C-alpha cells in the first residue's frame, strides 16, 4: 500500500509514482502528494485479454445486427443452445435508476431499451450519462417471472478527449421481490481503459458463465426483476446505452431460482486469524528513520495509552509490517525490487534489535501492564510484488540462474520464476521467524502487496499459486491466512475468494483526494456486496489541516453508520506516525483524535457531526474584514480566536494555499495582487471561511522600493536610480488625472528596467520586485475574462479554467493528462499585447505555442518560425512583437510530466509603448507677470547628469534668452530669467542636451494687461 504521512511519506509516495502511472494509465494520480493507494486504471490490454465475445455477438447465440448500427445485438428471434426461441425481454421496458443521470445527458424513460444504439461518440443523444456519486443501479421489472439466458449492457469509452470511461465493474443480479438479490455475474472491463473512442459490452451468458450464486452447471435463471450495477469513477463520466435481457416468457426446462445473498462485511474470525483491528506499520527505507520502529513508537499502536503515556487497554490486535522503498534509489517492493532488496528487508525486519524485536518487546510491555500474560500480538508480514518487468531478479539458489519474471522468457517460465521467488520469500520468513522464537508474537498470515489483481494473463494464476503454497505451510505449528488490501479501483477485486485470499479490506481512498463523502458509503456497499470489509485511512496531515481532520472524522462517522465499526474486520492506514503523534500530543484538539480512534476500536464511538464555533480573525491586531487593500510596503500578520472554545475544536489556516501559523509576519513587498487567507474550523464538521486582501502600489510605493533597493546597493550607478525615479515622478503627477499618461510613463519605466537589466546596472532582486509592480499596475488583460479549455482534470470545479485568471496565486486550472490540450482567453475586444506570463504548477508544458485570433477560427503564432516555445519551471515570461487580437490561446504540444497542464495564473499584457517619452520630460513653466520673472524646470529621463541648454523666442520670434545650466544630483534642472520688453503673446522655449537629437519645445503666455498675476504653463 502506498505510504502517506509527514516526513518520509512524500518520498514514499513519489517513489511509487511509477506504479500509479502503469496501473492508472496516468489518470488517478493527484498533484498533491500521491495518495495511499493510487486508484489504478488497468494498463493497456494484452493480446490474451481480447473479449471472448466482442460487441456484435449475441448471447447465448448469434444475433444479426444491421451494418449501420454500432454496439452489440438487436432484438430479434434467435435460436438458443437449448432449442427454444429467445428474445430481448427488456425491449421497450421502463426501469428505475438509483440515481438520476446528468441533466445534460438525460434518460427520458426508455433510452436503454429503445433499440437505438449509441455511436462511439459522446455527442450521440442515445447515450445516458452519469458523473460522480455512488455505484449506479438500474432495475427492470419483467412483469412476471421469466427464463433468462443472457444480459448485455453497452458502455462508451471516449478518453481522454471527452472524459468518458467504461465502468471498471458491471454486475448483474436477479430477484423475485426487488429486495433480495441473487448474483448472476460480476464483469470486469476486458478492453481496459485506453485512449480513444470505442464501446464495450458487458455480458452474462448463462450458457458459458453459469450462475455465480449457484455454479457453472446452472445456465438459466428464473426471476421477475433484473438489476444491472456499474461502478463510478471519481473523475470521469460513465455513458451507458442499450441493456438487453435475453430469455423467454414463462419457465423453460432447466430454469432455476437464484439464491439471494445478504450483503455484509467480512467479520473478524477464522478468516482473519482472529484479528479485528489490523494496524499498518511501514518499515521500509524512509526519511527521518520513520521506517525504524521502536518499542516507544509501537506501544500507542497496539495499546491505548492515557495522556501520561500509561498503558490502559488494547488497541490494534494485529500488526501488518510492510515496506515500500528499499535503500536502493528507484526501487520499491511494488514490483521494482530485486533479490538484494528483498534480502535487505528481511534482514532489517528480523535483525537483533530490529523491527520485529521492537514489536516483541512492546507486546510484552503491554501484556505486563494489563496483567494479560500469554496474550500475543498477532503479526502479518508482506509478500513483495515480483514485478513482471524484472528480467534479472537474482539467483535464489547457490550457483543458480538469475530469475527472469518477464514474459520474454515465455509465459510459463516467467510465471514459474515469480512463484519460485515468492516460495523463497515464504521459506525465508518461516526459517527466520522460527529461529527467533518470539515469545509475545504470533505470525498469523501474509499480505499480498499488489493492490489489484494483475491484468496480465498470469495474474490470477500467480495469486492462486501463492495462496496454495501459503495454506499448505505452517509456521511455528500455526496455519497462515492470506490478507489483501486492494484500492478502490482494484481490477477484479470481486474475485478475491476465487484466487485464494482469506481476509480483505478494500480502501475507500477518500482521505487522499477531493471526492464526495458518498465515496465512503459506496465503498462500504461494495465491500458488503463482495463480502469484504473496509480500511480506515488517515495520516499526519489531520493534525494540522482541517480538511484532512474532517475526512478522518468522516471515516469514523461512516464506520459507525454503516456497521463497519461493530460488524467488520478492519485495517488502519495511518501514514507513518499519525497514531503515535496523536497519542503523545499535548494539544487537546489533537489528542482527541487518538481518543476517538480508541472509542472506534472499542465500538463506543458516537457519530460526531457537531458544527464548529464561529471564529473572530484579526489582522495586525485589529478586526479583519475581507476585501481590504494595503500598500505593498506593509506586512500582515493574522490571529484568530474561537467564540466558543471547547478545547477540542481545531482551527487551521492557509495563506495562498500554504499552511499558515497564527502570528506569522508576511511582508507584501513584491507580492502585489489578491491574497487569500482561509480559516478552517473543525469540530464534527468543518467550516472554511475565506478572507481576501489586496496588496496595492502606486508611483510613491514604487519610489519607496527604489529608495530601499538603492540603500541595499541593488543598483550599480546613480544614473539608474535617477532615471527610474523621474519616470515615477511623472507617473505620480498624472495619477488620478490622466490614465493614458500614467500608462505611458509606466511603460517607459518598464522599458528602462529592461534596459538597465541588460546593461547590468540593476540586480535581480530589485529588477524582479519592480517588475512585479509594473505587471500589477499595467494590468492583466486576461484577469476575470471568459476562458475555455479543452479539458479540466476530472471535471473538478476546483481546477476550472477560470481559476487561472482569477488573480489568486494559489488557485489553478488543470487539464486532463493529454498532450493535445488548449487553454483560451477571450479579451472581450481587440487588444494590443506583447507579453504573456504563465505561472506553471509542477504539471507544466514541455513544448507549447501561443496563438492569437479575432474570430476563434484563424490562429496566428505570436512567436516566429514554427512558434514552438520550450517551457520553464515557475513563472515564465514570453515577450513578442506587439499584436492586436481578441483571443489568446495556449496550445499544448507536449507535457513535461505525466500529469496534464496546470497553471496558477495566465497573464496577458501590453508593455510596449512610451515611444514618445523624450529625453526631457515634466517641463513646468511659471510666469510672474508683475516682475516678468520666468521659471522653467524639468526632468532628465535617462538619469545622466549633463548640461541643459535653453533658448527662448518671444512672440515675434526674436531670441529673448539663451542659457545653459547643470542638472541637479536628482536629475532635474531649473532656469530662472526675466522677460524684456512688454510684448504680449506666446513665447517658445526650447530645451536640449548634448545627447538629444532635437530640442523639446514648450510655450508660455505673457499678458502685460493683467499685471500682478502670475500664471503657470
UniProtKB/TrEMBL annotation:
Pfam families: DUF4855 (PF16147), F5_F8_type_C (PF00754), FIMAH (PF22888)
Alphabetical list of InterPro entries matching this protein: DUF4855, FA58C, FIMAH_dom, Galactose-bd-like_sf
F5/8 type C domain sequence ranges: 770-911
Transmembrane segments: none
This protein's name: F5/8 type C domain-containing protein
